[in-house]
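Try it yourself: sequence plus zinc ion, in.
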Amino acid sequence: MSKLQLQTKRQNLLRQLQNLDPWIEGSLVSTSRKCGKKNCACHHNGPKHPVLFVTGKEAGKTVCLYIPRQLESEVKQWVQNYKKLKALIRQISEVQKEIIRLRE
Ligand SMILES: [Zn+2]
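Structure, out:
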């Protein structure tokens, strides 16, 4: 690829980066647990309640953040956006390396 082509490719990638919605670093973990109501079925061999967490490292420690139900779909999108962000960072780096290899 020519330098101009690479620069055009980079422009497209940077535009995608700018248009990216907020992201959150971490992984989604779903599990199920009992609730606080003693008379609920979950305390009497009934199904437990599904809950969602985002886990990730904070200052070297693994942190588990509970996601309230009303935010679940939004947070899932943020986690997806972080994956897109990482892919874009990698692709832009690759383009930059190609530009260096051209030695122009
Ligand atoms: Zn329950």
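One thing you can check immediately is this: The chain is about 45% helix and 25% strand.
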